[in-house]
Write a structure and sequence with these properties.
Helix content: 25-40%
Largest sheet: 5 strands, antiparallel
Strand order of the largest sheet: 2-3-1-5-4
Number of helices: 5
Mean pLDDT: 79
Protein name: DUF4283 domain-containing protein
Pfam family, one: zf-CCHC_4
Radius of gyration: 31 Å
Order of helices and strands: HHEHEEHEEEHEEEEEE
Structural class: alpha+beta
Length: 266
């Protein structure tokens, strides 16, 4: 029977119809794939009234990330930080990605405000960077590069302590946020505390030269509060000099400590 069927077609005709059959099979597979893609790409809209569960108040949620040199125990971190924050309405910290990006959920804006005012926070000497939650924002796209920190100004000449000076120097450091209200009504202080948002990827500013018009210049120095790890080779937050990657790029003769432990407030 097979010999009879084969005799009906020449070898050239058999090749022709085999190629046609293969083409039809590929077209059929392509149509199936197209159908799958259409199903995958079609949006599925869920009516708002059908969404169950507690509504999230994004205004009191945060994303956070640790600048770390070691693996972190997320549960231990949550227990320790919550014991410091004492949220009256409660809070929780949930790891999202690779145990290094977290959601911090508060349940009252007063608890959130108290936590932010007391920062920066750290666990096991790993500083925590914080970013306001935005609905629909992918945490992988967040630029975790800034931190709010209190900075002490030392060596101010008498009469220099003022909000204007605090604002101007705070904006040189990064972005001025506030200064300690204890000193707002006394211009004779030679010391101030200024809160500024600084870039953790840039070296810490150690000092600033200031002067009044017609007077001699004065050098004031800065001490940063609650920063557990500082590289004293390059003034960068988040690692020690022994773990500084720039050591790999320099010879021992080129390495020098340009920052000292005095930059950390005691």
């Amino acid at each position: 029977m097979q010999q009879c069927l084969a005799s009906l077609f020449s070898q050239q005709e058999r090749k022709f119809w085999s190629a046609k059959l293969l083409l039809f099979c590929k077209m059929d597979q392509g149509l199936q794939n197209l159908s799958i893609r259409e199903k995958e790409d079609a949006e599925f809209v869920i009516p708002t009234e059908e969404i169950q569960g507690e509504a999230i108040n994004y205004d009191i949620c945060l994303y956070s990330k640790l600048i770390r040199e070691r693996v972190i125990n997320a549960k231990a971190m949550e227990q320790m930080l919550l014991s410091f924050w004492h949220p009256m309405r409660g809070a929780y910290i949930k790891p999202l990605i690779d145990n290094n990006i977290y959601i911090i959920q508060f349940y009252h804006h007063i608890d959130l405000k108290k936590m932010l005012a007391g920062g920066p926070w750290s666990f096991n000497k790993c500083i925590m960077l914080i970013h306001q939650w935005k609905e629909g924002k992918n945490p992988m796209d967040i630029d975790f590069t800034h931190i709010d920190v209190w900075v002490q100004f030392h060596g101010l000449p008498m009469g220099f302590a003022s909000e204007t000076l605090a604002r101007n120097i705070g904006n040189v450091m990064g972005t001025y946020l506030d200064y300690n209200s204890t000193f707002r009504r006394n211009s004779w202080n030679n010391y101030m505390r200024v809160r500024a948002q600084i870039n953790v990827e840039e070296p810490l500013i150690r000092k600033k030269i200031i002067r009044k018009q017609g007077a001699e210049p004065t050098v004031i120095t800065f001490n940063y509060e609650r920063l557990p790890l500082i590289c004293y080779l390059y003034g960068i937050i988040g690692h020690t000099e022994t773990n500084c990657r720039k050591l790999l790029e320099r010879s021992e003769e080129e390495i020098s400590r340009e920052w000292t432990g005095g930059i950390s407030a005691r």
